Each structure stands twice: as C-alpha cells, then as structure tokens.
C-alpha cells in the first residue's frame, strides 16, 4: 500500500471511530437530566434571571414576597430533561419542607446562589444558607443581581469573594436590563462542561450562537496545538476526532442531522479546497510541515473555518457552502500569520 493510500485509510478509520464515539457521548448527554437549583432571598430575581438566560418564560415572576410556594422541581415544554427548583426565599415562610429542598440541592448539577446588590449583600440568613449548601454541593455560581440599582459593584464582588475565600465565581448582573447575562451564560456553560452537560443546557437557550462560538474557538485552539506536534502523522487521529466532534456537537445544538458520510465529506472536501489538492493527496491529514508553526496555523484555521461555516449554514438553513468555508479559512490563516 502506498503512503497516500495508507494515510487515506488511516483518516477514514479515524473518522469512523470518532463519529461513533462522539455520537455516543452526545446521545448519552442528551439522555441525562440537568438539575438546576436557584437559591436566594425573596425577590432576588431568580426567576427573571432564568427567563433572561434561556430567552423563554420558564419561571414565574411576581414582585410579591412569598410568591414561590412550591419546592417541586419543574420544567418547561421542550425542556423535559432540564429541571429547575426555584426554592422558596431564605426568609420565606412558605418553606415548609426544607428536607426536600436540601435533597434537590445535593443532586443539583449547578446551584445559582443569588444575592441582592441593592440590598444587604450576603446577609446573615444568606451566609447561614450558603454555608449549609456548601457542605453538600460546591457546584455553585454566585449571582450578584440588581447591579443597575447599586454602586461600587467591584467592591461588592470583592467582598463576596473574600468571604467565600475565592472558591467560587461571582457574576454581577442585572436581570432587569440584561447586563452581563451573557457572561453568566458562559460561566454556567463552563461549569456544566466539567459535568458533561453543557450541550444539554445550550440546546435549551433561544440564542445558541454564543455557545456555538465558544466551542468553535476552543476547537480552533486545540487544533493549533495538535497541528504543531513535531511527530509526523501524529495529528491524524486527534485532529480528525476533534473536527468530527465539533461538527456533531454543532449539529446536535441546532437540531440537525449529520451522517457519517456527511461528516467525511465535510472534512475531506473542505480540506481539499482549502489547503490544496496537491498537498491533500500528499498527506491527507491536511497539515503541511508537521511540527512547524505553519502546521498549527493551518490546523487551527481549517477547524475554525469548518466550525463557522457549518454554524452559518445551520443558522440560515442553507446547504454547506464550501466556497464560503474556503474564504473563511484564508481569512483565519492570514490573521494567525500576523
């Protein structure tokens, strides 16, 4: 078998294996439940924030104290796998079953702990509940809400970080104006990625673009590192797996189908058009000068072009345009060379 045929066979096997493995990961994740606990005093803006994050009215909002009277987890049409528990306020007289609340908190994938920037930040009741939660679950993001009605936000953030010994991220937001909601989304996705549930959460959001961009950029960075490995041929399998994984994750995010054949065609045709037929026939793995900076640049640029090209096609419900992906590739490559 000649070198070209050997490389091609290695590539095809890598795609087949990556496709099967990544599909299993995605299906396993989408079969899981995602549990989100919302904790904070009455009128801390818990429900309003969740509605802002998802772009859907999945949680009731009411300005009257004591409105959250149920501690039963709930979901929303289309979000059957995601369960929220908007717990009664820490000072809410309707919290009649704290044991049930605690059981959910123990199992929660993420706890959004709310404190009011316009009130008493980390009041005694908040400190007491926070310490109780921390003993059972440390997957906590602290949400400093209502910053539109407060001053010295940086000072408040530092106060909270100091009190919690810098163990947790503190995200200052305004659920009223939407300020920093995107940053909160990013932090939630980061935490859920560690638990293998970021795709499930991203699919629930009306605006999927931010999550897609994060995955594409991360894949581009990883591809650059893979392409710069100074061992000829060492990047065939990991780069292929990375690109297949990215394409499948994007297809799942946007509710599209991507067959094994489509995945192969996307990577093969795009690589052939972007890095050139001669080079492609020579190495198949798409990267010239393995181990050089150029290898990393091309691997990263190709992966970014694939990701953004497919994202654009999915968001606009159009067929994959390889000419557009090619143009993107050259743009990214030119930027990285500067």
Automatic annotation (TrEMBL):
Listed under GO cellular component are: cytoplasm
**According to the lineage, what is the superkingdom?**
Bacteria
| Family matches, as CDD domains | Ras_like_GTPase (cd00882)
**Gene3D superfamilies tied to this protein:** P-loop containing nucleotide triphosphate hydrolases
What are the UniProt keywords, alphabetically?
GTP-binding, Nucleotide-binding
| Gene Ontology biological process terms from the UniProt entry | tRNA methylation; tRNA wobble uridine modification
Q: Kindly give the Pfam families that the UniProt entry links to this protein.
A: MMR_HSR1
* Name of this protein: GTP-binding protein
Occurrences of domain G (ranges): 36-146
| GO MF annotation: an example | GTP binding
InterPro entries from the UniProt entry:
GTP-bd, P-loop_NTPase, Small_GTP-bd
Q: Where is the signal peptide?
A: none
């Amino acid at each position: 078998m000649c070198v070209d045929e050997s490389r091609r066979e290695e590539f095809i096997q890598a795609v087949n294996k990556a496709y099967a493995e990544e599909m299993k990961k995605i299906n396993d994740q989408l079969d899981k439940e995602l549990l989100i606990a919302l904790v904070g005093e009455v009128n801390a803006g818990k429900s309003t924030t969740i509605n802002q994050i998802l772009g859907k009215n999945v949680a009731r909002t009411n300005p009257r104290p004591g409105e959250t009277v149920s501690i039963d987890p709930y979901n929303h049409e289309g979000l059957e796998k995601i369960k929220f528990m908007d717990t009664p306020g820490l000072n809410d007289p309707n919290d009649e079953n704290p044991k049930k609340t605690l059981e959910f908190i123990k199992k929660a994938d993420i706890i959004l702990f709310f404190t009011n920037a316009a009130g008493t930040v980390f009041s005694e009741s908040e400190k007491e509940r926070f310490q109780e939660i921390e003993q059972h679950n440390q997957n906590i993001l602290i949400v400093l809400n209502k910053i539109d009605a407060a001053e010295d936000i940086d000072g408040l953030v530092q106060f909270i970080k100091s009190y919690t010994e810098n163990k947790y991220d503190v995200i200052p937001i305004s659920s009223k104006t939407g300020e920093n909601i995107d940053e909160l989304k990013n932090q939630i996705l980061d935490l859920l990625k560690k638990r293998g549930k970021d795709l499930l959460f991203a699919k629930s959001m009306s605006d999927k673009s931010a999550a897609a961009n994060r995955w594409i950029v991360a894949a581009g960075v990883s591809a650059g590192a893979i392409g710069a490995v100074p061992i000829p041929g060492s990047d065939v399998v990991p780069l292929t797996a990375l690109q297949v994984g990215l394409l499948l994750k994007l297809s799942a995010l946007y509710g599209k189908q991507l067959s094994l054949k489509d995945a192969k065609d996307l990577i093969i045709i795009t690589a052939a058009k972007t890095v050139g037929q001669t080079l492609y026939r020579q190495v198949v793995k798409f990267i010239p000068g393995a181990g050089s900076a150029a290898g990393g640049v091309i691997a990263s640029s190709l992966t970014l072009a694939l990701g953004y090209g497919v994202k654009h096609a999915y968001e606009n419900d159009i067929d994959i345009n390889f000419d557009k992906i090619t143009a993107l590739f050259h743009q990214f490559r030119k930027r990285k060379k500067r």
